[in-house]
Amino acid sequence: MGRAVTVATCALNQWALDFEGNLQRILRSIEIAKSKGARYRIGPELEICGYGCSDHYYESDTLLHSFQVLAKLLESPATQDIICDVGMPVLHRNVRYNCRVIFLNKKILLIRPKISLANAGNYRELRWFTPWNKARQVEEYFLPRIIQEVTEQDTVPFGDAVLATRDTCLGVEICEELWAPNSPHIEMGLDGVEIFTNSSGSHHVLRKAHTRVDLVNSATAKNGGIYILANQKGCDGDRLYYDGCAMISLNGETIAQGSQFSLDDVEVLVATLDLEDVRSYRAEISSRNLAASKVNPYPRVKVNFALSCSDDVAVPTCMPIQWRHHSPEEEISLGPACWLWDYLRRSKQAGFLLPLSGGIDSSATACIVYSMCHQVCLAVRNGNTDVLADARRIVNDESYVPEEPRELCKRVFTTCYMASENSSQDTCNRAKLLAEQIGSYHINLNIDVAVKAVVGIFSMVTGRTPRFSAYGGSSRENLALQNLQARIRMVLAYLFAQLTLWTRGIPGGLLVLGSANVDESLRGYLTKYDCSSADINPIGGISKTDLKNFIQYCIENFQLTALRSIMSAPPTAELEPLVDGQVAQTDEVDMGMTYAELSIYGKLRKIAKAGPYSMFCKLINMWKEVCAPREVASKVKHFFRMYSVNRHKMTTLTPAYHAENYSPDDNRFDLRPFLYNTTWSWQFRCIDQQVN
Fold it and tell me: What is the pLDDT of residue 469?
């Protein structure tokens, strides 16, 4: 009768402008899908060129090379007898669209342009593409000669249409369209579309995965149907980590779940589903059927092909499963670790160097590298030959097999404790013990000679010697001396990153890792061009609160007992003189606010779009049990003064893994001035009027 359809979706680790690699990964996913009996395969958004091409989309080369790859796909034997749905940019009548190109047996069936473009947060699709605004309309697209020679077609349908095969009807959504309030699947489902596909370029944010899963399942819960979602995975060249989670859903229930974090460049999900389950589910929803009787029909592209076999009564179909979500601590352990691995192997460096202070932030960064080593060893044990080849190239040993995380850590990870006269023995011991437990190559050095040399130059030129406030100096002197220590650590970090392996007779250089968390960046509690200045920062989008929970997770799951004393110690920069051998300086006292308060300020500022006055209005209710209105006003004013005074630091912030929706990343996510009127006179006066 033809009712059991076998479909495939995938998560691919595509890389912007890596046309050769992207082609190979697409072909491999199609081969896997076919080997598992699939008759339809969908891949991630813009998978041919890679999602993160940014302003390269303006270049005609990007369009040309995308069509060249499409020609290779059309010609490949791997793409025969399976409907292939791939993503690429297409120029139609001199307008650039983000498209799906759907083809079968060397014939293009439909080019479907994206209708709703993602243009918030990290997304800027309206900068490069135009949405297709002609609902349920199709035009002729004149194929370039390179494609005509393969398909023997002059023109193909371009627009908002659906595919009618011999046994079912398929409709396309592209990423943002699932999130839109008027998603196309609603009208398509009413018009008889039974299988919805979605190609996404959706990045990881802590605690976000369930939202995507709920949207997919709810898409078919009210209207019935099969929903197939593909997503990009990995770091494709910037701050984002695309977190896979390919999935297949039927009538509101998850049928197949892909991994959210893994080192597999190609992951394919295949499921067999019964079309009659969709039809019987819809049959009893009278409100749906009444709406369907009035819907405007979609243009249908007829396809002489079936996703099922005529004799499939005995074919087993897949049953619903329970989606397993990672805890936030697991997400921190896995997401940034996979991002670091992609960055390391694609940058062709030999490892990482981390200034390890013995505090929570740098220790969390070290734990993420250790988690990365865990993931590499696990992938190799599971037979991932790509990971093995990358590991051998990184360590410059063609016979190497990474089996134990500590041993791999020793080869690819260098930690460095940079002591000064203001450092305590406690932090030195904590850093040393953690380095021993994770297996990193650890260096202990003292920066006092360099600090005194620079101060000596200043004194020789000016005739004045700055002093810490503990020794009678002014606040200006005190801050300058703290900044000097921090900046010398940055210079030494880069020197050791370039030459440490040279001293050991090993080729290559190291990437410098930063470890400023999202709350410190928001407040500006960092020295411009200090150790927060690095090549990349895996924790720059993660809050102090989440990092503390992650450290506890590492104690329990990696048995890193050195972290216990790090957890219990108060956060400190150790840039001011010790008092009786003990640290007198602490972060929260220096900042004039707690890390918990900073997280709240950050979420209100960015997510709730609150300026000083609105933030005050919200906090007098949130904190009414603990703070009087006048105290709330004082806290809000202090935060906005410090935020605006230090906002210029965000322009030089180290590229960081994006994990929080209140990130102050100035590059693309949080677009603000960096020269403020820091008195906020009008705004603060409004607050004062309410206080009074």
Answer: 92
Q: What is the DSSP string of 338-398?
A: HHHHHHHHHHT---EEEE--SSHHHHHHHHHHHHHHHHHHHHHHTT-HHHHHHHHHHHT-T
> Using CA atoms, how far apart are residues 234 and 261, in angstroms rounded to an integer?
8
**Both tokens of residue 398?**
């063609």
Which letter does DSSP use for residue 80 in this model? Answer: T
Asked whether 253 and 223 are in contact (CB, 8 A), the reply is: no
Total domain count for the chain? 3
Catalytic residue among 49, 175, 416, 531: 175
DSSP, residue by residue, 535-600: SBBTTTTS-HHHHHHHHHHHHHHS--TTHHHHHHSPP----S--BTTB----HHHHHTS-HHHHHH
329-376, pLDDT tens digit by residue?
A: 999 999 999 999 999 999 999 999 999 999 999 999 999 999 999 999
357 included as an active-site residue: yes
Taking residues 517-524, what's their average pLDDT? 89
Q: Summarize the confidence of residues 39-68 as an average pLDDT.
A: 97
Whether 245 and 346 map to the same domain: the answer is: no
The answer to whether 161 and 112 are in contact (CB under 8 A) is yes
Mark whether 350 and 288 lie in a shared domain.
no
| The token pair that represents 583 in the structure block | 């640290």
601: tokens are 């300020």
Mark whether 45 is an active-site residue.
Answer: yes
- What CATH number is given to the structural domain containing 260? 3.60.110.10
* Position 668 pLDDT exceeds 90: no
What pLDDT is recorded for position 675? Answer: 87
What pLDDT was estimated at residue 674?
86
Distance (Å, whole) CA 366 – CA 356: 8
Mean of all residue pLDDT scores within the chain: 95
Three-state SS annotation for 99-154? EEEEEECCEEEEEEECCCCCCCCCCCHHHHCCCCCCCCCEEEEECCHHHHHHHCCC
- Give residue 643's Cα distance to chain centre: 25
Residue with tokens 């059927």: 289
Q: From the candidates 29, 357, 362, 521, give the one annotated as an active-site residue.
A: 357
- Distance (Å, whole) CA 19 – CA 547: 37
Q: Are residues 15 and 157 in the same domain?
A: yes
In the three-class reduction of DSSP (H, G, I as helix; E, B as strand; rest coil), residue 270 is classed as: strand
Domain assignment present for residue 320? The answer is no
Segments forming the whole domain that contains residue 543: 328-446+488-571
In a domain, 576, yes or no: no
- 248-305: per-residue pLDDT in tens? 999 999 999 999 999 999 999 999 999 999 999 999 999 999 999 999 999 999 999 9
Residue 453 located in a structural domain: no
List 31, 45, 125, 576, catalytic entry: 45
Q: Which of the residues 34, 114, 410, 649 is marked catalytic? A: 114
Residue at 143 is within a domain = yes
Q: Are residues 372 and 332 in the same domain?
A: yes
Residues 6+ away with beta carbon under 8 Å from 460: none
pTM over 0.90, yes/no:
yes
Q: In the 8-state DSSP scheme, what is residue 626?
A: T
How far is 670 from 481, CA to CA, in rounded Å? 31
Q: How many CA atoms lie within 13 A of 150 on its CB side?
A: 21
Residue type at position 72: K
SS3 state at 45:
coil
Angle at CA 412, nearest 5°, toward 411 and 415? 100
